[in-house]
Amino acid sequence: MASPLSILGFAGSLRRGSYNSAILKAAQEMVPSGAEMEIFDLAGIPLFNQDLENQPPETVTAFKTAIRGADALLIATPEYNYSMSGVLKNALDNASRPYGDNALNGKPVAIMGASIGMLGTARAQYHLRQCCVFFNMHPLNQPEVMVPFAQEKFDADGRLTDPTTREKIGELVEALIDWTRRLK
Ligand SMILES: Cc1cc2nc3c(=O)[nH]c(=O)nc-3n(C[C@H](O)[C@H](O)[C@H](O)COP(=O)(O)O)c2cc1C
Which atom of ligand 1 is nearest to the CA of 11? Predict the structure, then answer.
């Protein structure tokens, strides 16, 4: 039997009650048989310092190894000041270096995001897509999953309850799997 398609997910927020971590968890629960998804916690990724890029800390090596071991990535991005969070950009900068050792190279990736604003991370997602050009990643175009007014879509335990959002995330996971198989 073919080994399951592996997805690595990460969220660009370190906040305990993060909506982005919560939608990532929801996506993980929706992964169908034939695929599996692990979540990487970005909390241990230090600020990138180019002086040290040839002797990366263990956490960065572990992050790059996890990326390389995955068939596809799923990124949940917050929107901070109309862009992705520093946490996410820093993690991606670390993964992309040193030059010639870019772990993101050629990876299929799906992007989603949740914010308390009305555009649901649209601006952050398009910035992230711009960076994907230089990372040489293969972002999935559709569906776009932008979760606005996130504070209204979770229960007291932080579980995503909004049916439309759950459906969209399910579609995104299915589309990422299909996209990854097509690129293999
Ligand atoms: C520094 C900062 C900047 C923010 N900028 C935006 C923004 O540009 N657009 C937006 O919709 N929400 C913005 N927010 C609100 C975030 O959408 C909200 O904090 C959200 O919960 C962050 O994601 P998380 O729940 O995964 O931590 C900002 C929040 C912070 C802390």
Answer: 26
Closest CA to 140 of 7, 34, 14: 7
Say what the pTM is: 0.98
Which residues fall within 8 angstroms of residue 36, CB to CB, at 6 or more apart? Answer: 4, 5, 6, 7
* pLDDT tens column, 128-144: 999 999 999 999 999 99
With a Cβ cut-off of 6 Å, ligand 1 is lined by 13, 15, 18-20, 78-82, 115-117
- Contacts of residue 132, defined as CB under 8 A and 6 or more positions apart, other chains included, come to 109, 139
Gyration radius (Cα) of the chain, Å = 16
Q: How confident is the model at residue 51 (pLDDT cuts 50, 70, 90)?
A: very high
Residue 2, pLDDT > 80, answer: no
Q: Which residues contact 184 (CB under 8 A, 6 or more apart)?
A: 71
Is 143 in contact with 178 (CB distance < 8 Å)? no
Residue type, 94: N
